[in-house]
């Protein structure tokens, strides 16, 4: 495998000459909930269908994620986009609890906070809130984004009209298996230098990407400006700054130093962010499926 410095134009040029394919698709109907792999999914300007359309907030309306409540990883949320047999808007499942089935709520919207963003969302209702309090042991409320177009994206990076529901920053996140392989190599090197036991390779699930592609050049995606997956075109936003949520094992809910420790060494931006994967904004809609050819520029 050819190695080259992350984000260089030579990496991007090499990627153009390489056959790149879509290897995995992931939808997250509930922000910070369990990852829902799918074989195909519809894409609109707001992202993958139903991705991060639901979110938990605290009594003050501030977002609650797995950063604060690790157990959120154990809640399995499905919509018709992730389970074609489902005839309700949302189904929540958790070990030891009955399933919760919900329709799209029609209540008056309430103000919510997503980091520093002031947004509006529709509350799912007291029944859903009671179920979640029982599962998580925290005072939370479930809300739904009824209209993603109300949220504008980051000025200076996005374009007028760009919008999304409740992702952290942009509608779609793309990651590369080649980049993950290089990161895992670096993690091994870090452990050996420090005299530590070599950890098992990190899975892609730590980074919760919507779109996973293959290819031979690590971090070539840093230099991409446009991506076409099947018939759907997407525009590059910016590299993804990673947070401590990537250090939480979604199976055991335990935390560790990786991958942030190694990303800080090899993938730190001038602003101090630790980078892995890239944000994308859909330019056109359509349907994509695993195995689709990925064309980059």
Description:
This protein has 297 residues and is α+β, with helices and mostly antiparallel strands. The protein has a single domain (9-296), classed as Beta Barrel (M1 Pyruvate Kinase, Domain 3), CATH 2.40.33.20. 14% of the residues lie in helices and 30% in strands. Pfam families: MOSC (PF03473), MOSC_N (PF03476). Residues 140-297 form the MOSC domain. This is MOSC domain-containing protein.
Q: What is the molecular shape?
A: globular
Radius of gyration: 19 Å
Indicate the CATH class.
Mainly Beta
Mean pLDDT: 93
Count of spatially separate domains: 1
Task: Name the features.
single chain, 297 residues, alpha+beta, M1 Pyruvate Kinase, Domain 3, 7-stranded mixed beta barrel, 5-stranded antiparallel sheet, 4 helices, 19 strands, 14% helix, globular
Summary of the model, kept short:
The chain has 297 residues and is α+β, with helices and mostly antiparallel strands. It has helices at 9-16, 126-136, 177-193, 260-266; strands spanning 20-27, 36-38, 40-44, 47-48, 54-57, 63-64, 76-78, 90-93, 100-102, 110-114, 117-123, 141-144, 172-176, 211-213, 226-229, 232-242, 274-282, 286-289, 293-296.
SSE layout and pairing:
Layout: H1 9-16, E1 20-27, E2 36-38, E3 40-44, E4 47-48, E5 54-57, E6 63-64, E7 76-78, E8 90-93, E9 100-102, E10 110-114, E11 117-123, H2 126-136, E12 141-144, E13 172-176, H3 177-193, E14 211-213, E15 226-229, E16 232-242, H4 260-266, E17 274-282, E18 286-289, E19 293-296
Parallel strand pairs: 13-14
Antiparallel strand pairs: 1-2, 1-14, 1-19, 3-4, 3-18, 5-6, 5-12, 7-8, 8-9, 10-11, 11-12, 13-17, 15-16, 15-19, 16-17
